[in-house]
């Protein structure tokens, strides 16, 4: 079953895994060493991230290295951009109100 990207990144461990492999590709064992959990637990998180295409496996000998899928995250960022502009406008308006209130004191 394909996972929802929002469910995938809602979990702090999965966000931490993404942060780790954004720097360098890692095997599940190497990832498990970074967390206080079993390799099997890390593998379940990896499965969710892989189902969302946020990470991609690359076999190398007997190991599988997981890479950060920047293209998928960029697609997500583009989707968020439409909201970012709205937030930016609202924050600018709030800055103006706060500045006006500060001047009135």
Automatic annotation (TrEMBL):
<dbReference type="InterPro" id="IPR011991">
    <property type="entry name" value="ArsR-like_HTH"/>
</dbReference>
<dbReference type="InterPro" id="IPR036388">
    <property type="entry name" value="WH-like_DNA-bd_sf"/>
</dbReference>
<feature type="domain" description="HTH arsR-type">
    <location>
        <begin position="1"/>
        <end position="88"/>
    </location>
</feature>
<dbReference type="InterPro" id="IPR036390">
    <property type="entry name" value="WH_DNA-bd_sf"/>
</dbReference>
<dbReference type="Pfam" id="PF12840">
    <property type="entry name" value="HTH_20"/>
</dbReference>
<dbReference type="GO" id="GO:0003700">
    <property type="term" value="F:DNA-binding transcription factor activity"/>
</dbReference>
<protein>
    <submittedName>
        <fullName>ArsR family transcriptional regulator</fullName>
    </submittedName>
</protein>
<dbReference type="InterPro" id="IPR001845">
    <property type="entry name" value="HTH_ArsR_DNA-bd_dom"/>
</dbReference>
């Amino acid at each position: 079953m394909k996972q929802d990207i929002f469910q995938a990144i809602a979990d702090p461990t999965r966000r931490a895994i993404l942060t780790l492999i954004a720097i360098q590709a890692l095997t599940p064992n190497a990832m498990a060493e970074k967390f206080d959990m079993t390799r099997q637990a890390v593998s379940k998180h990896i499965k969710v991230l892989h189902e969302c295409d946020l990470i991609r496996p690359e076999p190398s000998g007997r190991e599988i290295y997981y890479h950060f899928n920047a293209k998928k995250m960029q697609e997500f960022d583009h989707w968020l951009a439409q909201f970012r502009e709205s937030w930016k406008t609202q924050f600018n308006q709030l800055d103006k109100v706060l500045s006006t209130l500060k001047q009135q004191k």
